[in-house]
Structure formats: C-alpha cells, structure tokens
Amino acid sequence: MNNIAVIDYDAGNIRSVLNALKNLGQSAILTGDRSEILSAERVILPGVGSFGDAMSKLENYGLIDVIHDVCDSGTPLLGICLGQQLLFDSSEESPGVKGLGIIRGTCTRIPDGTNEDGTVRKIPQIGWNDLSYPQTGSGCEGRLFKGVSEHSYVYFVHSYCVVPDDRSVIKATTQYGITVAASVEQGNVFACQFHPEKSSDTGQKILENFLTIPKLSIKEAGL
Q1: Residue 41 annotated in active site
Q2: Burial 166-191 (b: 16+ CB within 10 A, else e)
Q3: 8 Å CB contact between 170 and 133
Q4: What is the mean pLDDT of the chain?
C-alpha cells in the first residue's frame, strides 16, 4: 500500500508538495493511476491555475470518479489552493463549469476595494496572512490545526475563495478585505486555500496533522 498519493493532473505546485512531505520523512508518489490513488492511505489534491482548466484536466484523465471514490471510501483527502476550490460545486472564474461537488457551495472572486488601513486591495492576494478559528468548543476545532496557534501566519496565492453552503465546515479564516474561508473540513475531506507546503513550520505542522488523521469507515464518511 502506498503511504501518500499526490494526484497528478498537470496542475502545478507539485514539486513543493512532494518536497514538504519528504522533509517530514514521508513516502509519497505522484500519480494519476486509479489503483495507486485508491490504495493510498492519504490522498492530496494540489492545484494552481484556473478552475475550468483544472476540471477539464481531471475529466480528461478520468480522475473525477476516482476522487469521489476516495472520499466515499473514508480515506483522508487534502485539497490545496485550487484543490480546495475544486471540491465545491462551481466557481465564478469559470461560469457553467461544474466542480467536484463534494462540498456544497461555490467560489467567488475576492472583490476589489480598499483595506481598513486605506491601501488598495491587490488581487490576487499574494503573501503571508494570519489564521483565525471561527469555531471553539469540544469537537469544533479543525483537526488540521491541532497544536497550531490561532493567528499563525501561512502563505496565500489566490484571487478566488470558497463560500460553503454550510458555514460549519469552515475551520479557519483569514481577513483580506473580506473574511476568507482559509480551510474547510467535512468528514474525511480537508482543504486549505493557503499553501501549507510553502508555509514554513506552521505549514509543516498542518501537513503532519493531516498525516495522522485516521481513515473513516464508509458509513462515517457519509459525504
């Protein structure tokens, strides 16, 4: 059984993900092969680029059903950056293109405007920003953020952000003129709008947390 499968669909930021996992002493394969992905203990869906192009590539490579099967099996799956957005139903970036629909909701463009300090908001957001945890209490905290202090900084590169129908899936937010859903969690599906693989020690801890999350039973996954 492969330890970690990083889904290969020509979506960018692959090498940095593999290097981050290597730094954690983890064995990972880059693959678009159905059997290798489904036999993995953990699966990562990376992504840089446009929503429509990415969905077209996933379809062309026969990976849409594979990703759904991973989610249905209870295997932990982590979407990164565009990989988070693809988990949703649609995006304003690519009207008429269906997303994976694993988490209900859409993706919207970060609006142009002026920040609270009077500076013009630059789109895309590129750089470091801190995380807030909107939910507190036993069982509410995001499992990716165990041992990660609130207001830790992580690295973002994005123009669009997810808007879940069910706000309870949002486990971390960041402020960029609007409140951005920085990370979501639903059953065995996890995702980050930021790049944990480029977020120094904080990102390494987040990836480490993902690698310790146990597989759910099919009934528990229930997506």
Answers
A1: no
A2: eeebbbbbbebbeebbbbbbbbbbbb
A3: no
A4: 92
Query: In degrees rounded to 5, what are phi and psi of residue 196?
Result: -60, -30
For position 178, what pLDDT does the model report?
Answer: 92
| The amino acid at 135 | Q
Q: Which of 93, 185, 197, 208 is catalytic?
A: 197
Q: What is the DSSP string of 99-167?
A: ---SS-EEEEEPPP-B-TTSPBPPSSEEEEEE-B----STTTS-GGGTT--TT-EEEEEESEEEEESSG
Domain boundaries along the sequence of the chain: 4-221
| pLDDT of amino acid 58 | 97
207: three-class secondary structure by DSSP: helix
> Is 195 a residue of the active site?
yes
Which of 71, 81, 107, 161 is an active site residue?
A: 81
- Quick one: DSSP state of residue 46? -
Q: Which of 69, 91, 11, 106 is nearest to 189 (CA)?
A: 69
Q: Specify the pLDDT at position 147.
A: 95
What pLDDT is attached to residue 1?
42
Say if residues 141 and 133 touch (Cβ distance below 8 Å): yes
pLDDT at residue 27, rounded to an integer:
84
**Which of 107, 158, 161, 195 does the annotation list as catalytic?**
195
Respond yes or no: is residue 151 known to be catalytic.
no
Dmax (CA) of the chain: 53
Task: Classify domain 4-221 at the CATH topology level.
Answer: Rossmann fold (3.40.50)
Tell me which residues of the chain have a pLDDT lower than 50: 1
pLDDT attached to residue 12: 72
> CB-side exposure of 7: number of CA atoms within 13 Å?
31
